[in-house]
Design a protein that fits this description.
The complex is a heterodimer of chains A (356) and B (259).
Chain A: E1 4-9, H1 10-20, E2 25-28, H2 35-44, E3 53-56, H3 60-72, E4 77-81, H4 83-88, H5 90-98, E5 103-109, H6 125-129, E6 140-142, H7 147-164, E7 167-173, H8 174-178, E8 180-185, E9 211-212, H9 219-239, E10 243-246, E11 253-256, H10 259-274, E12 279-284, E13 286-288, H11 292-299, E14 304-309, H12 315-323, E15 329-333, H13 342-354
Parallel strand pairs in A: 2-3, 2-4, 4-5, 5-7, 6-7, 11-12, 11-14, 14-15
Antiparallel strand pairs in A: 1-8, 6-13, 10-12
Helix pairs in contact in A: 1-2, 1-7, 3-5, 10-13, 11-12
Chain B: H1 7-10, H2 36-50, E1 57-61, E2 76-79, H3 85-95, E3 100-106, H4 107-113, H5 115-123, E4 129-134, E5 137-138, E6 144-145, H6 164-167, H7 173-178, E7 183-190, H8 194-211, E8 217-223, H9 227-230, H10 234-248, E9 252-255
Helix pairs in contact in B: 2-8, 4-5
Classes of the chains: A alpha/beta (356), B alpha/beta (259).
Bound molecules: thiamine diphosphate and iron/sulfur cluster (SF4).
Chain lengths: 356, 259
């Protein structure tokens, strides 16, 4: 079937893609800049068409625990929020990781800490990639850079979530969530009719009861389980790294940026090249697993790396770890909802690495 | 899990006056002697068994002494984060509307940290059964004050007794949810005597059957004991419960369907 072309906001694209992916349930709570996801779904009322349940929860805490309940039944479920709401979800995300449940969590990031601003930011990188909630867990983190990717990563997110029985986060930001672009939407998928054998669907005589839990009071059992989780994360690191490169073949300087910053940096590469500077861009698509190996390889032929983020410098730590001292790595970023300009990036690249 | 050594040799079939429901596992329960949790588990398992609902039941266990409910009742169970069982159960029931879904929660879980989830699940009229075990204390963490702790009652965090002015008064969640249009059947029971056990079992059976009607939340509070947290023998605790808890939490129906 052919894809359908539409002009949509990133948030709307997530909502429509969720219906088309055959999702069974969405549980959310309003917060700017992502409320369109819940609004779109309420308006679309997919319960009438695909049977997908859409529920406005009393809080983000309730919403993520609804996701836990739905995922525990083996259903395709998702939630979305923005930074303060995602903070509230952290205990639930930790439980979901600990119970090895698949689900999709969309974070349309705004600036912080605290109530911060409703403008776009990338300051939830640490929270998403380094844990966020308590305990030794990770989740796969996908970073869309376009409305198209916000739609596409719904399907990809569910696929990875079920493949590895793990929560997947789509780490977007207020700019991509709010802007309108053309988007090709996949045809409607049918909702699942068979469910994983671990799901709580009612105990049949043919199987032992299914239990969804993250509890193990025995230290030995708990240690074995944590090790099993780490094995899974290592497998994900081997198999699921995704990134995109622009003009890195002959680059002397590399920009590393994801999401909105990557769009800006693509333009920066053109501007720098027009000035005779050999600059390339690596855009991580997965933030966990991080494209460390590739960045390390590229570093062999580089004079410097600039990590560009709408934050005070978070991803830069992973870039530093990736190159392990091979080349200088610096951070450039704007905060508080300000999106850096392509020219600013080039100016900073020059002043940091060339004029210095 | 372990089994009491030689139990099968001691209890001969011809001496059996009563046997446990097949839906109770062989695992030895971790509850303290005389604790009400075990009794509620038993009658809940019996009702599910008697109504033939094992394959149609999904339970949600809380954080609290009954966190390990899934080791004792042989149905599919999800273990929820502290206080969040009603949210977890909401999604289960919405996504599997044909199933019987229940939560099992203590008073710390349901009436303190999970107050919002409790009230909103009831207010949406989620078609689930909420079993609320009110023992007036945090059992699992070692006897701290709960929102349901009586005024003057001692706990490890109200060592001189609960003072209403600074610590609040007993929170009557059952009375609160009974006022919500979303609830269909709200009752307060106990399991400290055989007669009360029978009454509570009847209430649970009713609630399970009401769920098929899709009319709203069924909410059963069971005023219960915590001999360990209260620092009493089981017998003392039951007596104290009758004399001191029941006046504050009177037994009986708060809301019954108009049939
Ligand atoms: C978020 C969080 N806070 C606190 C705890 C610690 N905790 C475990 S059980 C419990 C109270 C349980 O009391 P109650 O719900 O009354 O159940 P009971 O043990 O008396 O049956 C607390 C505070 C926890 N596990 N999670
Ligand atoms: S601590 Fe209290 S509630 Fe917990 S099992 Fe013991 S008696 Fe029961």
């Amino acid at each position: 079937m052919e894809k359908e072309l539409r002009l949509m906001k990133g948030n709307e694209a997530v909502a429509e893609a969720a219906i088309r992916a055959g999702a069974d349930g969405y549980f959310g709570y309003p917060i700017t800049p992502q409320s369109e996801i819940l609004e779109y779904l309420m308006e679309a009322n997919p319960e009438e068409t695909t049977g997908m349940i859409v529920l406005q929860a009393e809080s983000e805490v309730a919403a993520i625990n609804m996701v836990y309940g739905g995922a525990g039944c083996g259903k395709k479920v998702l939630t979305s929020s923005s930074s303060p709401g995602i903070s509230l979800k952290q205990e639930g995300i930790s439980y979901i990781a600990g119970a090895e449940l698949p689900c999709l969590i969309v974070n349309v990031v705004r600036g912080g800490p605290g109530l911060g601003t409703i403008q776009p930011a990338q300051s939830d990188y640490f929270q998403s990639v380094k844990g966020g909630g308590h305990g030794d867990y990770k989740m796969i983190v996908l970073a869309p850079a376009s409305v198209q990717e916000m739609a596409d990563f719904v399907d990809l997110g569910f696929e990875l979530a079920f493949k590895y029985r793990t929560p997947v986060m789509m780490l977007s930001d207020g700019a991509i969530g709010q802007m309108m672009e053309k988007v090709y939407l996949s045809p409607q998928k049918k909702r699942m009719t068979t469910f994983p054998d671990w799901a709580t669907t009612g105990k049949k005589a043919t199987r032992p009861r299914n239990i969804i839990t993250s509890l193990d009071l025995e230290s030995n059992g708990q240690e074995i389980f944590i090790q099993k989780l780490q094995d899974k994360y290592n497998l994900i690191k081997e198999q699921e790294v995704r990134y995109q490169e622009f003009q890195t073949e002959d680059a002397e300087y590399l920009l590393v940026a994801y999401g909105t910053s990557a769009r800006v940096c693509q333009k920066s590469v053109q501007i720098a090249r027009a000035q005779g500077l050999r600059v390339g861009l690596l855009r991580p698509i997965t933030l966990f697993p991080f494209p460390s190996k590739r960045i390390n390889e590229l570093a062999d032929h580089l004079k410097g790396i600039l990590s560009v983020e709408m934050s005070a410098g978070q991803m830069v730590e992973d870039v530093l770890l990736s190159v392990n001292g091979k080349v200088p790595v610096r951070h450039y970023g704007r905060n508080g909802g300000i999106i850096t300009t392509p020219e600013e990036v080039v100016e900073n690249l020059k002043s940091i690495f060339i004029e210095a | 899990m372990f089994e009491i050594a030689g139990i099968r040799e001691i209890v001969k079939p011809e001496n059996l006056a009563y046997r446990k429901s097949d839906l109770l596992t062989e695992n030895v329960m971790s509850y303290c002697p005389g604790c009400g949790h075990g009794t509620v588990h038993r009658i809940l398992a019996e009702v599910i068994d008697e109504l033939g609902l094992q394959s149609d039941t999904i339970g949600v266990s809380p954080v609290g002494c009954s966190v390990l409910m899934y080791n004792y009742i042989d149905v599919d169970i999800q273990q929820a984060a502290h206080g969040r069982a009603p949210a977890v159960a909401t999604a289960i029931k919405r996504l599997l509307p044909e199933k019987f879904v229940f939560t099992y929660q203590g008073d710390g879980d349901l009436a303190a940290i999970g107050t919002a989830e409790t009230i909103h699940a009831c207010n949406r009229g989620e078609n689930i059964l909420m079993l609320f075990i009110n023992n007036g204390i945090y059992g699992m963490t070692g006897g701290q004050m709960a929102p349901t702790t009586l005024v003057g009652m001692k706990s490890s965090t109200s060592p001189a007794g609960r003072i209403a002015k600074t610590m609040g008064s007993p929170l009557k969640m059952t009375d609160i949810v009974a006022t919500l249009p979303g609830t269909y059947y709200v009752t307060r029971q106990s399991v400290h005597t055989p007669a009360n056990v029978r009454k509570t079992k009847k209430a649970i059976r009713k609630a399970v059957q009401y769920q098929k009607l899709d009319r709203g939340t069924c909410f059963i509070e069971i005023v219960s004991n915590c001999p360990s947290g209260w620092k009493m023998t089981p017998v003392q605790s039951n007596k104290w419960m009758e004399e001191t808890m029941f006046p504050v939490y009177p037994l009986g129906d708060l809301k019954t369907p108009e049939e």
